[in-house]
Structure formats: C-alpha cells, structure tokens
Amino acid sequence: MNNVFALRKYIIAGIFSIACIAFVFRLFYMQVIDDQYKLDASNETFRHITQYPPRGCIKDRNGKLLVTNEAAYDLMVIPNQVKDFDTNSFCSDLGITKADFNNGIRKAVQLNTASHASVFMKEVTPEIYAAFEEKMYKYHGFYSEVRTVRRYPMKIAPHLLGYLGEVSKELCERNPKYREGDYIGMSGIEESYEEALGGKKGVKITVVDAMNREVGDYKNGKYDTLPNPGENLTSTLDATLQAYGEKLMQNKAGSIVAIEPATGEVLALVSSPEYDPNLLVGNIRARNYSSLVLDTLDIPLFNRALMAQYPPGSTFKPIEALIGQQEGVLNEHTVYYCGGSYPGGKPKCDAKHGSLDLEPAIAKSCNTYFSYVFMSIMGNRKYATMDDALTSWRRYVNGFGLGTRLDIDLPSALRGNVPTVEHYDRVFGRSHWRPFTIISLGIGQGELEVTPLQLANEASIIANRGYYFMPHVIKSIGDKNEVQKKYTTRHYAPVDAKYFDIVVQGMSDVVSDGTAAASKIPGVTMCGKTGTAQNPNGRDNSLFIAFAPMDHPKIAVCVVIERGGWGAEWAAPIASLMIEKYLNDTIKRTDIETRILDGNTIHYLEEEKLQPKHYTQHTAHKK
C-alpha cells in the first residue's frame, strides 16, 4: 500500500514539475525570443498603421481610363494619448471648427474606446495634408494613414461605374475583413466586382518617439504585411459612345442602352439626369450625396436604364408578330382591315390603314392589326381555356427576357411585369374577364412593363434572328482575358428562326418609309420600331428600339425619353445618332444632331411640378 502512495506522489510531482518547466519556457519564449508578444504589449510605443491597397482601375473596351486613384489621407486619433495643445492652431491647420474637433474626439471614444485608434478626419486632400504633416509632431495622439480615393478622368457613366460608401457596422460584425471606416462599392461595377477591385489590406508597424514622431520601422519591417492591390477591370463600354449618348441626353429624362448583339457586351448605358461621379469622392461625398438624394425632381441617383419600368408600347409589336407566327395563327400574308380602331372602338389607331398584311402592319405600327393578332392567340383552339392561352402567351414573352431579371453583372436590374392569370382574377374576379378585357397587352400597353435594358435585349434577339447573350459590362478581370461562362452562352427565344425574317424586314421598312423615316442613316440599313406609351403624369413617353446594319448587326439600341411624345419625335433620332456615331465615328446629319442637342424635354417635368416616380402607364393605345 505504501508503495502505491509513493508512486502516486512521484507521478503528481512529475506532472507538476513538467507543467512548471513548460510555463517557465513559455514565459521565456514570449519575453525573450518572440518579439511579437513584446509588440502586443507595447501599444504606447508601436503604431500599427493600416496599409490600404490601391483599388483596381477600370478601363473601357479600348483602354481608356474610366476610373483611377489618387492619394488621400485619413487622420487617425488615439484619444487617451491626446495631450494638451493649441486646438485653435490644430483646427486652423486642418480647416475645421472647434465643434468639429470636439465631435471627432467624442465619436472616436464612442466607436473604439479611448485606447484604440479611430478615424478623426477622413480623406484629407494631399494639399491640406502636406502643410499639416510638418506640424503633426505637436499634436500627440494623432497620426495618418494613407489611402486612395477614386477619380473619374472622363466624368462619364456614373450609374454604370457606381460609387463607394462606408461599410456598415453590421457588415463589420459579419465579416472581419472590414472595419468601420473602410469603403466598399455601393452601386454599379464598384459593387458587383468589389471582391476583385478591393484588394487586401496590409499592416505597417512603426516606432514612435515621445514627440509623436515616427522614428523608423519596427525590426526593419519584419512583422509588416504588404497590401495586395485590387485587380484592374476592362469594361465592355465604349467611352466615346457613352460620352456622346450623355451629351445627347442633356436636358432630357430617360435612358439609352446599346448592346453588341454578337456578344451581349454593353456598349453604352446612359441614365439621365445624371451626376458627375467625382461628386461622390473624398470628404465632400456625404454633403453631395445628401444633395443628390434630396433632388426628388430629377432623382439623378436613380438608374433608369435598369430600374425604370415602362409599358413598351409599339416596341412590343415585333414580339407579338413572332408569337403569332409560332402559334400558327399568323403568317406574312395574313390580312386584317383597319378602319381606325379594333371593332368596338378600342384600341384606337392613329389612322385608317385599310387592309394590311404583316410587313406593312409593322412598318405603319397598326394598333388594329396587332389587336387582331393578340385576340387570335387568345382564341387559339389548341388551348382548353383562356387561362391556358394567357399562361402560354406569358411564357413566350418571358422567353424574350421580359418579366424576368436579366442576369447582367450590375446590381438592381428589375424584372418588369408580365401579368398573370392570378392577377386578373384578383382584379376582375374569377371568370369575369375575357381576351377583350386585356386586349391592350397586344400593343404593349395595359399592365405590361419593361426596362430599357430589356428592350435593348429584345432588339439584340431580333438582330440575331432568335438568340441573345446575357448583357454584361466587364470583358476581363486583371490579366485574364476571360469572360464568365454565363456570358458566352446562347439563350434562345421560344420562336423558330424562320419567323424572324419578315419581322426584320418590317422593322427595316419602319426606317426606310415608315414611322421612323425621318431618322434613316445614309448608307446604313437600320431596322427599328417606334413606341409611344401614355404617361399618367403628363406627356407621353417616347421609345425606340433599333439595330444596324440589317445583316451582321454590330449594335442594338433602346432609347426612352420620358415625356418625349411620339417615338419618332425624340427616341428614334437619338438612337439613329448613336448608331451613326458607333458605325461611322462621325455625324453627317448635323441638322438632326443640333435639334437634339438644343432640345429640352425635361421642362415638361418642371412645368408639371411632378416627381417622376410613376413608371407604370396603363390603358394607352398609341404607337
């Protein structure tokens, strides 16, 4: 028994001795061998300075710089290290007030406690910082972190490029990669490609003397980590075309979207009214952002190209013609008589066209003709019920990218609206509506709503005779000349290719001698379709879709001008100028260009004193 107790005593003593030896060795390692522990215990002597990586630049398809960087400085403060100094001199050096100083210190304490560094003043310009740096030794507890801010040399495409904003507290809690005071993309390409553009932060450790001056790197930078710069992006944008489109849209509310049909690459994306992207850069960002948000008349931050939803009007008629052919209720020789309206008086037509077959019906944009087409689809005997007919029609329309969100590499693109059976059951009651009740759908009115991006994509589908590539705005990331697979995959419309030729010919006639004849381009066969949609707030909206050349098209365009009246009045000439600029690089029709540049449609909005927030127009029956 005594032997057992003795053995236990030795085992316990051995374990205790080993633990003591391990503890002593660990303490020796921490205090003598590993400098990192010294460093962690010496916040008063060493300063950890975040090394912000330069954010990736963005170029257009031809290598022109759209977004670049320039240096700025964040002034940091550790409140419990701040000693008495001349605050009036400090405020004068930085161009701030005594109240700004007190607020900065108070916020720093509230955010990160008095012993940790916080941003006192964001993004001090190089000019101010250069003068302040020489006197910083007088101000204990303050130091700087260099970072970059965005610059936009061409001052174009703010809605496509996007802007940066400060990360939220919630995001910092969810993702340790970020800390309060960091900036991330909040819209456009900056948001969609944040991971590629943002890069990775580093840390520099410096030694500080009693005068608050940096005297060198700790251990010659042994524990520093270098920042990894963000990737540069090459966009699909044609900067020259984009700038020209923005010029044409001055004093107009609406949008332009131009796509290369063969690739789905977005050549231009204009939303007007717009703003100078440099307004949302640096320490003027907050003030300017508030001003832009409060502009509820022009709403310049609203991306109309992706988010405004309008009835397509007669720009929808090519799709209706294709559905009718696919359904077998329409062909190029189908004739209907137009006496100025569909039987019963509605929808009305702007003229008494007489007897028409399909091609001239497209060229003259006959409401009566396409009302007959819609009724024939709804009355197709292959469907057991009207519900089945409308559901099938809706499926066709979705197949052209309407009523669904196109998977463009930009945030906030809306899906529009293609009404369902359930919607009409709620509005009219089950079995209390008929095809004639919803006949406005056949001419692109009623509850049908689309975005300009979707209309440009419709033009691309017709240009390609039945397929499209998903619209996208980035060609390559970094040195990799690769496009995401989803942007190189063909998406086919639910209509056979053989039915597109007559529609393409009709759209060519629209420009040669139809509703957009005044917008023809010498030497270029352009195919287009005008549209006019009623606006419940005032004057009709002007729409136009087009592509050119007719064979092997290089560009497809949609233009929407809010309160612009007839499609041929504003949208068609603007689209034709965009196409002429892209294909020929010069404009020969200077008379049309001058009229557009001098024109003003936004004054209709100002006269009406209305806020342009209602993009849903119903019960209109115009082209």
Helices and strands in order:
Layout (H helix, E strand, L loop, with lengths): L1 H32 L1 H6 L5 E6 L6 E2 L5 E13 L9 H8 L3 H15 L5 E7 L1 H8 L8 E10 L6 H4 L2 E3 L2 H6 L8 E3 L2 H5 L1 H5 L3 E7 L5 E4 L15 E3 L3 H10 L5 E7 L4 E8 L12 H10 L9 H4 L9 H11 L8 E3 L15 E3 L1 H7 L2 H12 L7 H14 L21 H8 L23 H12 L3 E3 L4 E4 L12 E3 L7 H14 L13 E9 L2 E11 L6 E7 L9 H14 L5 H9 L3 H7 L15
Parallel strand pairs: 2-10
Antiparallel strand pairs: 1-8, 2-3, 3-4, 3-5, 6-7, 8-9, 10-16, 11-12, 11-20, 13-14, 15-17, 18-19, 19-20
Structure, explained:
There is one protein chain. The chain is of the alpha+beta class. The chain has 2 domains: 47-235, Penicillin-binding protein 2a (Domain 2) (Alpha-Beta Complex); 239-288 and 311-608, DD-peptidase/beta-lactamase superfamily (Beta-lactamase), CATH 3.40.710. It is 35% helix and 19% strand. It is built from 22 helices and 20 strands. Strands 2, 3, 4, 5, 10 and 16 form a 6-stranded mixed sheet that branches. A 5-stranded antiparallel sheet has the order 12-11-20-19-18, sandwiched between helices. Strand 2 (58-59) and strand 3 (65-77) form a beta hairpin. Helix 10 packs antiparallel against helix 20, helix 13 packs parallel to helix 15 (367-378) and helix 14 (358-364) packs across helix 19 (500-513). The radius of gyration is 32 Å and the shape is elongated.
